[in-house]
């Protein structure tokens, strides 16, 4: 393997630190950049991957992690995203157990620590890629480029493009994948600890493959470390000149010395990597079950371009935008879909210039990697091809540090200016990280920050509207939902949410139009069918509402909320048995469906089936022992059955949970009135009227009680 001192390393304007000091310095910079995100909320995709993911709950069997995708859906389902990351979900579950619930601080702290560790380990990776692979007599990696590797690691630690991976909790997948990626690469390097080309350790290569598998179980891109290891082996360990080798193969000028390749063990190692990679891909394919996920035009618009030429051009334009974000990480957005990046639709689009520039740079770097006689240039050249999202910036940081070192060596008289420039760039990076990670602390700041970056992105307007609606500002939410639909006329989720708000504002005609359009665009949109049924029920279009509910259930078999609303429809039509069956289905599918249980008790009470109402109420309280609404309804039933003492107990228990319930005080007063405990009845009538002076019937009952008390006083001697 080619080893040499990096002659320009000493010119870099950084102190030469001991290995441990360098790692601590880089880790501290990483912590400084993102520490202000430690107390952030669950934002954006965290809701689905963490908050609503049942795989995090202790009650869920651990085995489910190995059969479900990243979002908690079964991999065999056609609706599964197929993102298989069980090790990442396992760390989320561990966070949940340690914190005793969904407390975001612990999740954020883990992410920040992981980034600090990865940044520190980057020093070892950069040291090998810049200065070559060598060990001292104690088996520790020798760093022939201590300043360059430190500078590159500092750039990596502070790069603002990492904010989403660190400050967004679902970015844990990128962090863990990067960590195991690094460990796999460094372990592969350990296989050559003997120092001679023909000596290598199969055991270390096997360990490297296992770490690659772990990286893949954190995020799918982890398997790309096999390509990095193979390129590292060919270009740096065996010092193969790929250009010369290709000339031999194509022109057959000189035969390839197969014995030499066998002697160095290169073919054996490449065979092991190929076997390991093939096994992992086969296992991954088998686990996916029904094949790859089906993405829509919203998810990946470039895949739906008119022809293959435009598809390829748009893919390459996306690559150029990623490269620009590495160079100038100022315009950062949580989502780049839905019109954020308009498609290239012809070869005359001026943006084609960026594609040409990108490929000129890449071709130049690849030529350095495979054709250069300078081993140091080769080491820097090949790593930039790594396209893993979080790790892709490592190639940029390495190239940036290499360029600065080169400038410092050849332009020594400007060393002071270069020193100031490096310091200024790091300070700008740190400041930008601090600002961006602060924006990731809440959904409100995250979503609104994207409006100036991607004003044409319908999803940005949708998320701003959703956040406003969740905080009760429905008037402002309507504006953003309408803009989302204007920008993307087939955005069914925006139509559904807008229709819901209009429904609550009793603007039923427009709500019906929006929801009808949503289900015509996406006929299997179960939630929109259910909401359409609710609107049609309110418009007294009972037959259409019933059909909409059944459509929702057809597309989502286990839909307890839809059964609940179907029961309400039947109750409005006095189809009592159908209503009870629908609500019973809701409680079977969701045993803690409080509204369905309560409605069954109330309906049975109103129809005079007091005994059955009592049984249902007691059954519900076994599952929901602290539900004050069910206690209230059961207490009413027991009062009518003249079980006054037991009824009183449930009323008082309900009031301990919800002491400001005027109706509960009022009905308890009625119970005491019937029971003959008139002073207690008077007390609770007054409490009820104090909480709600307009409570129906309470004032009349109170006046009746006062007249009775006055009569008793007059007849008392």
UniProtKB/TrEMBL annotation:
Pathway: Protein modification; protein glycosylation. Residues 291-363 form the DUF1736 domain. It is a multi-pass membrane protein. GO terms for molecular function: dolichyl-phosphate-mannose-protein mannosyltransferase activity. GO terms for cellular component: endoplasmic reticulum; membrane. InterPro entries: O-mannosyl-transferase_TMTC (IPR052346), TMTC_DUF1736 (IPR013618), TPR-like_helical_dom_sf (IPR011990), TPR_rpt (IPR019734). The keyword Aminoacyl-tRNA synthetase does not apply. GO terms for biological process: endoplasmic reticulum unfolded protein response. TPR repeats lie at residues 458-491, 492-525, 526-559, 560-593, 662-695. It comes from the Eukaryota. The chain crosses the membrane at residues 112-135, 200-217, 223-243, 315-332, 352-371, 383-402, 414-435. Keywords: Endoplasmic reticulum, Membrane, Repeat, TPR repeat, Transferase, Transmembrane, Transmembrane helix. Its EC number is 2.4.1.109. It is found in: Endoplasmic reticulum; Membrane. Belongs to the TMTC family. PANTHER family: PROTEIN O-MANNOSYL-TRANSFERASE TMTC4, PTHR44227. This is dolichyl-phosphate-mannose--protein mannosyltransferase. It comes from Myripristis murdjan (pinecone soldierfish).
